[in-house]
Amino acid sequence: MKTDFKLLIDGKLVDGVSTFDVVNPATEESFAQCPRASEAMLDEAVAAAKAAQPAWAALSADERQAYLNKLADAMEARHEEFGRLLTAEQGKPLDQAMYEIGGSIYTIRAIAGMRLPDQTMRDEGGNTIIEHRTPLGVCAAITPWNFPVILLVGKMAPCLITGNTMVAKPAPTTPLTTLLLAELAADILPAGVFNVVCDQNELGPKLTGHPDIAKVSFTGSTATGKKVMASAAEGVKRVTLELGGNDAAIVLDDVPAKVAAEKVYNGAMANAGQICVAIKRAYVPTAMYDEFCAEIAKLTKAAVVDDGSKQGATVGPVQNKMQYDKVLAMIEDAKASGTLIAEAAKPDKAGYFIAPTVIGGLSDDAPLVAEEQFGPVLPVLTYDDIEDVIQRANDSPFGLGGTVWGMDQLRAMDVARRINSGTVWVNQHLAIDPNIPFRGSKQSGLGSEHGTAGLMEYTQAHIINAVNLEAEPA
Ligand code: NAD
After folding, report:
1. How far is the CA of 219 from the centre of ligand 1 (A)?
2. What is the pTM of this model?
3. What is the three-class DSSP state of 27?
4. SS3 of 107, please?
5. Whose CA is nearest to atom 17 of ligand 1?
6. Which residues are catalytic?
7. pLDDT tens digits for 127-184?
8. What is the pLDDT of residues 185-240, one digit of tens each?
9. How far is the CA of 27 from the centre of ligand 1 (A)?
10. Is 153 exposed, middle or buried (0-12, 13-18, 19+ CB in 10 A)?
11. Which residue among 147, 153, 196, 201 is best mutated to probe the pocket of ligand 1, counting the most ligand atoms within 8 A of its Cβ?
């Protein structure tokens, strides 16, 4: 596996001022060094992006699309290398890593094909009003450690196709797949169009506060998102924030317990629960509770927790030590105040392995119910009245996703309409699509990614309001 990585600044692959360890969460051992950028290097990256932007914006969208498609082709040619590197730095099982890379390639191509043509708002009586969109300039992408590749390309592709340039900063514990993408970009994109700097959590404020950054697209925790928003205030910068969630799954009384348990289990435990829109609390009718628990217990006990590079592993380690300690503490607290429904086995070796765990009997204000766990542990709660469960699902500062499960699709959709979050899936989960807007309500975010709405956020809208003098009465 590749262990030599460089930053990308102004089209050149360069060393940092120092390096830091990148740890494989399945072994707790360092397997590669990441170059660390200085503040001066970040300034160079922003300056390069600023210098490159006018010529990039002057290309036609079709020309920019051709560049992005070349990048997607280059990723496809190294799909497996990306997947293995992702498993090594992030921890997820290899099949899930390959899926993230495949989704990233698809996302680049899909977004590169989108356009924002002028909109005619009025054309009558000699008055023509159009809305025309232009790029913002240099945009910053700041990404977290749970999906380092697909979350990055979901920012890079709309930024570049609309004629902006970018400086990207990955999370310190998962920088390497971003640097592999940078290596491909160095050969394909014009110098300065896409730059990557890495840090140990110190460059974020400098990047978001930089006077030549026009927009910040941030994905991460709500706590950090608030800091990003505050630092963008000074320059009235555009921000897109994709933040935390505490998504409820509402199981209706007409769905078989076995079906519901399988869907809810998968929605809670994929990527070891480290998904912003993972199912983080499940609400089940009281009359179904025992059967649902028996079914979800079977699935939980069948989990194969192991190094993601081992064939057959279904749940990898959590990504880093801080998250490991946080999730274990939440599980201990929940076990003490609730009832253990099931716990998987986990390997007795080094690695941030947490056994998938399902816990019942908790009150709505228990930390595992009220806060974002971001790990492989799920609380199951009961309800008797649909109005009550809707109110409890909405009683959260978060509003990212959510799911409703029911045989009567229209009834389930009626419940979904009343959940206050950016996305509610009915009888499916995680159907994130680059063509469909994705956004959070309340403290789960601001603005949109994906779809036309997401593309618009990388542009400034101008109203051109013209009258035809020849049409005026003499
Ligand atoms: P985090 O907020 O700790 O870090 C995210 C990124 O912000 C990292 O690159 C980090 O270096 C950088 N950063 C840290 N301090 C900064 C500052 N002051 N200014 C600017 N940048 C700074 O988040 P995390 O722990 O890496 O990720 C987990 C969180 O991300 C969870 O809450 C999860 O729900 C959320 N998330 C949300 C989405 C979504 O689309 N809504 C997707 C994935 C993850």
Report:
1. 5
2. 0.97
3. coil
4. helix
5. 204
6. 242
7. 999 999 999 999 999 999 999 999 999 999 999 999 999 999 999 999 999 999 999 9
8. 999 999 999 999 999 999 999 999 999 999 999 999 999 999 999 999 999 999 99
9. 24
10. buried
11. 201
